[in-house]
Amino acid sequence: MRRELQGHYVSISTLGEKVRAFIPAPLPPEPPIEWTPGLRGKFDQALLALGRLDAISTFLPDISLFLYMYVRKEAVLSSMIEGTQSSLADLLLFEVDVEPGVPMDDVREVSNYVGALEHGLRRLTEGFPLSLRLIKEMHSILLAKGRGSNRMPGEFRTTQNWIGGARPGNATFVPPPPDRVMECMGKLEMFLHDRPEPTPALLKAALTHVQFETIHPFLDGNGRLGRLLITLLLCEQKVLREPLLYLSLYFKTHRRQYYELLDNVRLTGDWEAWLDFFAEAVIVTATQAEKTAQQLVELAHIHRDQISGLGRAAPSALRIHRALMEHPITTSAWLVKKTGITAATVNKCLVRLERLGLVRELTSRKRNRVFSYAAYVDIMNRGTEPPG
Question: Is the pLDDT of residue 148 over 70?
């Protein structure tokens, strides 16, 4: 459905240039969303896919192990969209104090993302509402170290930013001027809290994402935080019990269409085309997450059966196997610390796991050796390969 411009332009002067900055109209859209049978059906499919994904959290033998890796996969993908070169392996090495093969700032950026998400989820479980305060807290963690740490972490911007182009004059989009950011974000917060009217959770997540990206309230980290808000909102609204849905891979794969749809919403008010795309992203991503979880459960069963045949070494080897599911690229020292098993026993078990073909050593040295639970990493790695 085509509407009018979803907001208005104001003329501003920044960096010696006169440009037009866009101020979005508050949510929900006017006139309301046109729920054609096709769009309604797509949203129903998306909700069913989310329901199946949510059910996974009840039958996975240890949801915390899956979540640990899944959150890190999302951190890598979301940061990759912004140009970061860190891989999942780089992040896992960084977390066990091994120097990764990419610039440290890249890995810190990804690690900060994990920290921001975990903080947001923890606050929600404590009963704190999804609010501007929480968004700022998460942003302060997202930009705590590395690149962006000098870009006002945890504070809305006080200077003008722009998207695309080398300067405001040739930018593809100029968000609201800094003196209007708080007003725009205040109205978005009211929408999050069902004012002026209640909005279903999935629709709220879809609309909020566009509005946040349009306001671009921070100097840096808007894209990553905007994607995080989708998952956070679905958890807050109890659509998901665990943070299992991440749309970064879908947005990355369909990057051009994603940006075109955001522009079309602003310029022509075609929210319906965006909502169709968003629902498809949820269907594809939720289905893939469900499949990944099932593959990891099957893999763990097969490997536990193999390890159980190791005789007296089996109990220790099974504990090491469980630790490897939490952190599938790690050092023998980390495994000693995690399991409480002696270094000698850990190393003997790793040799046995290598013979079974479950573990591969990534280094060829006597001290500080790094091991990979290769099959587990391969399943989690799909879609995270850095651009060549």
Answer: no
The number of angstroms, rounded, from the C-alpha of 193 to the middle of its chain's C-alpha atoms is: 23
Q: Topology of domain 312-381, per CATH?
A: Arc Repressor Mutant, subunit A (1.10.10)
In the predicted structure, residue 240 carries a pLDDT above the cut 90: yes
pLDDT in tens, 50-88: 999 999 888 777 787 778 887 888 888 888 887 777 788
**pTM (2 decimals)?**
0.90
| CATH architecture of the domain formed by 7-291 | Orthogonal Bundle (1.10)
